[in-house]
Amino acid sequence: MQTLIMVGQFILSLSILIFIHELGHFLAAKMFKTRVDKFYLFFDFMFPLSNVLNFALFKKKIGDTEYGLGWFPLGGYVSIAGMIDETTDKEALSKEPEPWEYRSKKNWQKMIIIMGGIIFNIIFAFLIFFSLLKFSKKEYVTAESLKNGGMTFTEPAKKFGFQDGDYIVNVNGNEVERIDDLIHSSVLFGGYYTVLRKDSLGNSQTLKLDMPKDFFKTLRFGPLFFPKYHYIKVEKVASGINQSVIHRDDIILNINDKPIDNFEILFTTLDSLRNQNVKMQVKRNEKIMDLSIKVDTAGKVGFIPGFIPHYDKYALKPYDVFASIKFGFYDCWKTFYIQVLSFKKMGSGEMDIKENVGGPIKMAQMFGYDWNWLRFWSLTALISMGLAFMNALPIPALDGGHAIVILFEMITGKKVSDKVLSILQTIGTVMVLALMIYVFYLDGSSLMKK
């Protein structure tokens, strides 16, 4: 049942995002009076072989367009008359362009049609980020209020020079307004933190702490620092003996009736209970639950911890409309920027592709085994930005590849022949198919290791 919930969330998220992406192309085409022959969620053929297993689970023709639900779930498409893609009718292209065909449109109109899907994915991600801030989170802890007691740091963070009680002044010279932004995108691949530190006599000094180029790797194992006053929550559940017992987003209240008020107490308590069965009390969806868990020989129970600040200890600011728009845009930009930078780092060999690229299986696992709408929409926003980024890559057959051809035509004033476009489409399709096979291989390898 848990696996079905995980897969169900992933398919629903993917379906929404495919629909939004294709809707962007569809509406842009309609805006310029371009005929759309098909609008399909999922493929009604064995992608990329357009003549293999051609059938739809549902289809209905309205006007010039056939709307349908395909059977092959890894994508979707709109078939735009006169446009060369995997569904192109080669015989139709041999005729003179009709006024309602893509071929007859001006280059700037073609560009809008091609970029429509990417634009819609970005807009949709922003609307999700905005809505989550405005209607779910509602308020945020200001970074400035962390002067109240400073911060507490994990052992990996202390290796970078942090000390308990330090107050983070800025990140790479950027002042941070929200506590959520202390892990700033500008420092993930190297940079510095400016901290204010008090000695035993109460004297303050400002220090600059340099972060390594692989700083991002440290973040995989949980937060590096957190407010002095905080609760512990489950950020991610690892596979193991407690996998079906502990749930993501559980808030840890006590272990063997000992209150767990911060990370230090959690770690020392678990360390003292190695290789024992213990009672853990958690808060889950506003309910108090008693769990029986196993502590392994290393003093671990199989989850990556996160934190929730004691809101009564810190200054809060509301996510009003202006703040929600501001930070919604920032969250969109940060997501896109990290993806671009990660792609560049993987290309240069600074990041391991195998560790940082995943396919449908890894993506599904991100949703977890219980249905959580806040997590669902947060991940959907992240995947929407990822879909926008991937489609923007200058690979033939992807939106970015089509955009490069249009730019070439706009700059040179020369039209790329249909034959060359067909060749580019074939090359791009092979590249995309090879990439799909590779990510499936990475997913399979990851499962085998477990």
Note the main attributes of this structure.
42% helix; 450 residues; 3 domains; Pdz3 Domain; 6-stranded antiparallel β-sheet; 22% strand; alpha+beta; 12 helices
Q: Which helices and strands occur, and which strands form pairs?
A:
Elements: H1 2-31, E1 36-43, E2 56-62, E3 65-70, E4 72-80, H2 90-93, H3 107-137, E5 139-141, E6 151-153, H4 155-158, E7 167-171, E8 191-198, E9 204-211, H5 215-218, E10 225-227, E11 230-237, E12 251-255, E13 258-259, H6 263-271, E14 277-284, E15 287-294, E16 303-309, E17 316-318, H7 321-348, H8 353-356, H9 360-366, H10 373-392, H11 399-412, H12 418-449
Parallel strand pairs: 1-3
Antiparallel strand pairs: 1-4, 2-3, 5-17, 6-10, 7-8, 8-9, 11-12, 11-16, 12-13, 12-14, 14-15
Helix pairs in contact: 1-3, 1-9, 1-10, 3-7, 3-10, 3-11, 7-10
